[in-house]
Every structure is written in C-alpha cells, then in structure tokens.
Design goal:
alpha+beta, four-stranded antiparallel beta sheet, 4 strands, rod-shaped, binds heme C
C-alpha cells in the first residue's frame, strides 16, 4: 500500500470517528437544550395563566360579584378566565395546551382525562412534588407535558368547593350541587396541565447537529488536503527523486544530476547523506576502474 494511501486511510478513519463522537455529544447537548427551551415556554404559559387568575380574583371579581347572590358570573372565577383566555391564545398556537384538570371538577369540561388523572394521583401521593414532566405522543405529534399541582391552601376556596350548602346559591343554580365539592384544606384536587409541541425543538436540535457535522467534515477535508500537499512536497516527491537517482546509480549510471533538498528536516539530511554516499561510491568505482 502506498504511503499516501496509508496516510489518507488514517485521516479518513479519524474524520469518521471524529464526526461520530461529535454527533453523539452534540445530540445529547442539543436534546437537553431543546427540552430546556420547551420548559421555558411552559413556564411562560403558566406565568400568564397565573397572572390572569390573579387579575380575575383581585380586579374582576370585586367589580362583578353579585352581593344579592342572584346572578353568578363564571367570569369572576379565576379558573374560568384563565382557561377562556387560553382558548383564545390557542387559536393562534393550536399545538399548545392548558387545562385546569380536576378529579372532581365543578365544570365537567375540566374533568381530568385518564393520563391527566394519573399525573394528579402521583401529585396527590407525593405532596413534595412541585411538578411532573412527561413526554406524550398525541395525534399532533410528540409533546412535552408538565403538571403543576393545585393544592388547596387558601380557606376561601372552600366557600365554593367544600359543601354545596355553603356555596353561593346562584352558583349552584348554574353548576348544580353534584360536582366540585368536598375539597379539603391541604388536598391536591387537580393540576394545571400544560403542554408544548416538541416538533420545533426536535427540528432545531437536528439542524444544529447537521451544521456541526458539516463544520467538522469541512475542517477534516481542509486537514486532508493540506496533509496531502505537505506529504507530496516534503516527503513523497524528494523520496521519489532519490529513489529514481539511486535506481540509475545502482545500474552504474552516474550521469544523473545530484538531488539537493534545501532545509533542515530529515529528508534534507537524507538527501545530503545520499549525495555523499553516491560521491563515495562514484570514487570507489573510479578507483576500481583504474
Ligand atoms: C365564588 C366561588 C368560587 C371560589 C371562591 C373558588 N372557586 Fe374554583 N371554581 C368555581 C367555579 C364556579 C368553577 C368552574 C368554572 C368554570 O366554569 O370553568 C371553579 C373551577 C375551579 C377549578 C377548575 C376545576 C373545576 O372545578 O372545574 C379549580 C382548579 C378551582 N376552581 C380551584 C379553586 C381554588 C384553588 C380556589 C381558591 C383559591 C377556588 N377555586 C375558589 C367557583 C369558585
């Protein structure tokens, strides 16, 4: 196998293993970056929902509450406004999801689906958890879902969610007395469930990997071309010349010009020694001839 082929084989091997190693490492980093990005999106959606809830209870409720308990406006309920605002938001971003899911909800629309109930039950079982994150397959693709517990810490919640007899009559007229009652202080009754699509983040991670692979490939190509040029210029050409001359000299033909390679590297000193040897051989032959 020729020297150039050997060198190139080693370089190509290094290039392939470099690309494989870099891709593996980048994939891990890109994946955790993508998840981090989705978690940030979810944190923003949650902060917005909490802001709407707060605005409803501090800004809207005092203005719209009916002191005579004749009319009950759902618009004064934080959960109603947070979910209604989100339904408008999701007309622009249909892949995102927000739900205040409960095991025993006042509004049947808020009834937890099976997978949501699983998360709520896990949060109920371990009150120290401040969230549970999972990756789910949906019809629209993979999503990253996070459940944040709804735990009753404020006694005023029980005005409407403990016993139907103490809840506002106008609310019972609207929602009935069957659901959304019997909640207790300290109990985790449901969860804020939010999910965001993973498709965009997955694509960004894949794009990043392609860019990094290309960059490494180009860098290796430059190295391969440079090493080949240097190999040719510094080693292969001089060695080929010297081998051609020694071929002629070995056949007794001393007419070939001396090959002189300038410089201080090993090939230059080889060429100097080679010339010296050739001259000695030449004079030895002449002595013999005499
Ligand atoms: C004035 C009565 C009232 C009070 C006080 C109240 N809620 Fe509600 N809550 C409701 C009503 C009515 C709904 C259903 C709203 C709808 O139609 O979406 C609801 C819905 C909810 C939901 C969504 C699940 C479900 O039951 O449909 C959660 C979670 C919730 N409330 C938590 C709380 C918490 C926590 C507090 C205390 C900070 C609280 N609520 C205080 C009346 C009340």
């Amino acid at each position: 196998m020729r020297l150039r082929t050997k060198f190139n084989l080693v370089l190509i091997l290094a290039c392939v293993s470099g690309i494989i190693a870099a891709t593996g490492l980048t994939y891990q980093a890109a994946k955790s970056n993508a998840l981090q990005e989705i978690e940030n999106e979810i944190a923003i959606i949650r902060a917005n929902a909490l802001a709407v809830r707060k605005y409803t209870s501090t800004g809207v409720k005092p203005l719209l509450s009916d002191g005579n308990d004749i009319l009950f406006l759902p618009h004064t309920v934080p959960s109603f406004s947070a979910q209604t605002v989100f339904s408008y938001f999701s007309s622009s971003f249909p892949d995102y999801y927000y739900k205040e899911a409960a095991l025993n909800p006042t509004n049947p629309d808020d009834l937890a689906e099976d997978w949501e109930a699983d998360l709520i039950n896990q949060l109920r079982a371990d009150q120290s958890l401040d969230r549970i994150s999972i990756i789910r397959e949906t019809d629209a693709g993979r999503v990253f879902a996070v459940a944040f517990p709804f735990t009753i810490t404020d006694p005023s919640c029980l005005d409407c969610h403990s016993d139907p007899s103490i809840a506002p009559a106008a609310m019972i007229d609207l929602y009935g007395s069957e659901n959304g009652f019997g909640w207790e202080m300290g109990e985790t009754i449901g969860a804020q469930i939010i999910y965001a699509p993973m498709a965009l983040a997955d694509k960004r991670a894949a794009d990043l990997i392609v860019v990094i692979m290309l960059a490494i490939f180009v860098a290796f190509m430059v190295v391969i071309v440079l090493v080949n040029l240097m190999l040719s210029h510094i080693v292969l050409k001089p060695v080929a010349m010297m081998s051609e001359i020694s071929e002629q000299v070995s056949m007794g033909d001393f007419s070939a010009p001396e090959y002189i390679k300038k410089g201080s590297d090993e090939i230059s000193s080889l060429s100097t020694s080679f010339n010296r040897m050739r001259r000695s051989l030449d004079s030895a032959m002449k002595l013999l001839d005499d």
